[in-house]
Amino acid sequence: MAGQVVDYLSGFLTALPDAPLADLSVPHELLADPDLRRPPPEDGRALGELLAVVDRAARPGLNPASPGYFAFIPGSGLVSAGLADLVADVLNRYTGMAAPAPGLVALETDVLRWLADVVGLPTSAGGLLTSGGSIATLSALITARHARLGEDFLAGTLYATDQVHHAVVKAARLAGFPTGAVRIVPTDAGLHMDVGALAAAVAADRAAGRVPFCVVGSAGTTNTGTVDPLPQIADLCAREDLWFHVDGAYGGAFALTERGARRLRGMERADSVVLDPHKSLFLPFGTGALLVRDVAALRAAHSGDQDEAGYLHDLDELELPDFAALGPELTRDTRGLRLWLPLHLHGVAAFRAALDEKLDLAAAAYALLRDVDALTLLGPPELSTIAFHCSGPGTPEEVDARTAELLRRVNAEGRVFLASTRVRGRRLGRLCVLNHRTDRARLDEAVSALTRHAKALAAP
Ligand SMILES: *Cc1c(COP(=O)(O)O)cnc(C)c1O
Q1: Is 334 in the pocket of ligand 1 (CB under 6 A)?
Q2: What pLDDT does 424 receive?
Q3: Contact (Cβ atoms closer than 8 angstroms) between residue 295 and residue 127
Q4: Which Gene Ontology terms cover its molecular function (predicted)?
């Protein structure tokens, strides 16, 4: 069976560079196909037949594993992580607590320690791997809430810009906060948090009887890859005794590189940091990470009353963390292996080089597109994302429509796929370089298609 699966995946990977990138037409025919959408049969079918069904089912939609994928925040799907998953799933050891699988929990703990070192957090830090950035953010805000507000938290107020990922606002709601608890802090012309305005908002809220408790800084926004002024936010949080959370789901891992570490300075002062290895460490979807400066605060917010759980009593506590006491899950997959195996197999230098290459490619795209009169660029990339719109005459609506048409034409060629976003009411095209398979040749294809179509759209 494994051989058949490997053959199928080899074919997928061989075809991947030229495979379709995006088909967003709704595949009514496929979705209604009775051969595909059968109830599970009483007697099984051949694996080969089923892999063919999976292959057809995987065709429509988007293909973030492709080197031509520059939309949203690209995924990658490191094959070695997939192999680690296979091993972990078949071994099927229980890692919710340390005692049933101390060796595997130790490997995962070492990976978390390495991540904390990349971010620059002290030895008091700890955390856990989650299914993604959203769940990690939820646990971060619950920890901040528990540490700073206790049980009577409805007057608590947290601060973020309008560029913050919506996962933060959603997490605040899930953590029990009323809608008004999230204060939107203005941004400067470059979309960075205005720390003067933040200080003013905190003071005004205190005067009005609210309880400021947390500031969320972005270590790379999803819209434009903008990094908030983290050192200044850290200063304000220290002065005002606020929990400093950094959302590094897109950008945090760039701290592995020299340039990234420079741009992300201040992240090491956070009380909690979210990373998303399924974005910027190229892993398959399903891997986020939460790191908390004082792991005791994370534990205090999440550990249930385990004395009440009679069925857990046979398990002694070890020097290792019980991940179930640090997050919402009890039973979980052996998530650590999918990070541990690739890191040890390829070496950290390979990850650093890949991230450096993404920074280089984004800088190269900026340098080339900056000189195209038909395009207006937002600014040099702070990480690996550039944002742009069409130049030239017309109302904002007309320019927005031209930018949308530009992306439509570029995407229609089928070699690259870009998506747009809305910032301050305007449509921006985005080029986010993050897939580990994206190389200079494919970036040049994107740049040349953007240049060609932008010029054609600008011609009277
Ligand atoms: C993707 C993203 C999130 C949400 O993470 P998921 O892994 O999609 O749940 C949060 N913040 C930022 C900046 C992101 O890019």
Answers
A1: no
A2: 94
A3: yes
A4: transaminase activity
Distance 226 CA to ligand 1 centre (A): 14
Is any atom of ligand 1 closer than 6 Å to the C-beta of 400?
no
Q: Could you list the mean pLDDT of each consecutive 10-residue stretch along the chain, which spans 460 residues?
A: 98 97 89 90 96 94 97 97 98 96 97 98 97 98 98 97 97 97 97 98 98 98 98 98 98 98 98 98 98 97 74 68 96 97 98 98 98 97 98 94 98 98 96 98 98 93
Based on C-alpha coordinates, what's the Rg of the chain? 23
Q: Which of 131, 221, 226, 250 to mutate to test the pocket of ligand 1 (most atoms within 8 A of CB)?
A: 250
* DSSP states along 122-179: -TT-EEEEESSHHHHHHHHHHHHHHHHTTT--TTEEEEEETTS-HHHHHHHHHTT--G
Q: Is 366 in the pocket of ligand 1 (CB under 6 A)?
A: no
Residue ranges in 67-128 assigned as alpha helix (H): 79-91, 102-119
Quote the CA–CA distance of 362 and 376 in Å, as a whole number. Answer: 16
pLDDT of residue 319: 86
pLDDT for 316 equals 59
Protein residue whose Cα sits closest to atom 3 of ligand 1: 133
* Residues facing 182 on adjacent strands: 158
Nearest CA to ligand 1 atom 6: 133
Distances from the Cα of 94 to the Cαs of 100, 324, 331, in angstroms?
6, 11, 7
Contacts of 324 (CB under 8 A, 6+ apart): 96, 97, 330, 332
Up-side HSE of residue 357: CA atoms within 13 Å toward CB?
Answer: 18
Q: DSSP assignment, residue 395?
A: -
Quote the Cα angle for 89-313-333, to 5°.
Answer: 15
Domains of the chain: 2-64 (no CATH), 84-346 (3.40.640.10), 348-458 (3.90.1150.170)
Q: Does an H or E element contain 396, and which? A: helix 396-412
